[in-house]
User: What shape does this take?
Amino acid sequence: MKKCNRIARTWLAGGIWLALSPPLAQAEEAAPACKLKIVASLEMQTNPDGRVTIPVQIEGHDYRLMVDTGGYINTVSPRVVKREKYHPMRSAGTTLRGMGTRQLADYVTAKDFAIGRSHGKNFIFFVDQLDSLLVDGTLAPEILAAYDVDLDFAHGKLNLISPDHCPGQVVYWTQTPAAVVPIEIRDATHIRIPVMIDGKQINALLDTGALTSLITMRAASRHLDIDEKNPGLKLRGNIPVNGMTGPVFNYPFQTLGFGGVTVNHPHVEMVADKVWSDRDDLLLGIGILRQLHLYIAYKEKKMYITPALPN
Amino acid sequence: MKHIVLAALLATAGPACAASYDNLNAGIQLYNLHEWNAAIQQFDLALAANDLVPSLQFIAHFDRGQSHGALSHYDLAIADYSASLALRPNEVQVLISRALLYGRNGKMEQAMTDLDATIAARPDLDFAYAMRSVANMRLGRIDKGREDIKIALSLRSENAAHGRDIGIANWEVGELEKAEDEFSYEVEHGPRKDYGWIWYALTETRMGKALPRRSLPDFDKKVWPAPIIGFFLGDITREAVFATAQQGEANAVNGQICEANFYVGEWLLHNHDPAGAKPLIGEAASNCPTNFVEWGPAQMDVVGLP
Assistant: This one.
């Protein structure tokens, strides 16, 4: 998950971002109102830690970007910068911070950026010190939120679908009723949803870029009456969680409910408030999210959820 | 029209079984927690039904291979990496991982094959050349090893880390001014200022310069490698260095003898005593552990000695 300050976001919003244009053939097609129109159907690859990437092209070269619904900005690794012979620019007087300690200040502009057959021009990517051979950068919602995003983890597919469809008619993958959850879009693109954890409602931030799901001690105390003296807490130690280090506890949560869909024994780590001081109470990382089939309808402000393999 | 589009989406769905997929997710979670044995059990279950889509089979094999590797089950890890590569033959992360384990198992030709494939797929990876240089040297191909180091150095990014290891790479290919800068940096800022100074002193000597006494960092005179520093400074004899190297626990002694042979040998070599240097550097080349930084330079220097 990435945070950035107000200045940086304003700068981005007024910057060079342009929407991906649909391929010409699709643009010319007169679509029936209720048709789900696929803009791109992408092979999603799972990384060793469970997070996922999709194939993209930058300046005509193949790369893999991690899908980061909790991100504010798109990033690329220094290897992309080197291969494309970019000359990074320093953002004027502002610094973007990751959830950890990384400061992202340098950015590059991709003249041609493509997902599937859709191309966009002059996309900004901040340069992040990613050291994985399986990930060349991250893709934040500033691009994803232009579409419905269909995350089919169990079949390794990510579909970008036109948001122009009949309301509610999106669950194509099963006859099983899907949970329909209202989503609140925060900070322009971040998804916040109500969930039930051990029977108590709590607001959660959806972050496919986060490895670990976590709840702060503050939120656990406020919503679940779990404090540091609770016998169920087991200290794992001072370990890094999503890039920050602090005391981390395991707690035997029983259920996490999304409407009518339930994840049993969700792995949610409890962390000191300083580890995650965001305004949300619960961060849902990829370990839990990949147990689900998620259809995020940004425009409709709804998310459709079933188990990853509902049948 | 809607039915056609939905059919297209549904056609992507394979016959995945919920149990296999659940096992995979459990395995990944345990893998992230470094609970290797439990992770392997889950990956075993996930793969047993053979119904995961190929991209998930790939990661199940890779993560299981990583887990086996962490437990030093190198043959099992290699088998899993091979299964991953059967699904994605040019995946450089897996090629690198398998090459490392082939190297640990002494299968240098196989390691070389994987590193060649890595470099063919990603010619921009400096560390792939660095790894191949080691493989070449272990196969006795010293010149090829040196060439790979040159390429690795040329591919380093401007922001790459500085210090002793980069200094040694430059030393190996004869870029002494760059080596001098790197060792000087290590003496000032590095985690091993004592070894940094030893290399700095050797480099200055090799360049015909005076011993950098004023750069000498604070170091514990009772702890290895103090005797080597003392020898360079003329405070103790060569015999005293080797006598001290013999003291301590068995593992430490092996390393200390390697270092005594190498550093005393190099000191003699660059102080115009190649005949005295040759048996010592030869010993270092033969007996230094391959994961010691002295191993590579010893391989290169021993072949050039008269």
